[in-house]
Write a structure and sequence with these properties.
The chain is mainly alpha-helical. It is 39% helix and 0% strand. The two termini are 48 Å apart.
Length: 126
């Protein structure tokens, strides 16, 4: 016997809450579980963020001790973390330039005509 679907106070149907699907162990290869099982942990995104931040900070500290061959002398290029900020700025410009490029290349919603009309070369059924 099935129960009728639940309704809220306004009479709309309410979906029952379901658990998030979890990967089944019967279809997972043991080597895949060994190599990629850590991805299932809820702490993984935070740990990855901390790892990237630690690597970035350590590269800036290492930048203090590395003597580079300069092609052209500039005083600001020898400052600590210059290349880190230069790379971040270049990447930010590349990402942010996608917005005006998208505006330039994007077509209007009705570029191909109205959605519910037939093309001119198709005969109507009536």
């Amino acid at each position: 016997m099935t129960l009728p679907p639940e309704r809220d106070s306004s009479g709309r149907f309410v979906k029952p809450e379901q658990e998030a699907p979890k990967p089944s162990d019967e279809h997972t290869h043991p080597m895949a579980k060994l190599l990629f099982g850590w991805v299932e942990s809820p702490r993984t995104p935070l740990l990855l963020l901390l790892l990237v931040a630690l690597i970035a900070a350590s590269l800036i500290v290492v930048d203090l001790f590395i003597d580079r061959h300069e092609y052209k002398y500039t005083a600001f290029a020898e400052s600590t973390g210059f290349y880190a900020f230069w790379g971040f700025s270049a990447f930010a410009i590349a990402v942010l330039s996608g917005w005006p490029l998208g505006k330039l290349l994007r077509r209007d919603e009705d570029y191909y005509g109205e959605a519910d009309t037939k093309p001119d070369d198709v005969e109507s059924d009536s």
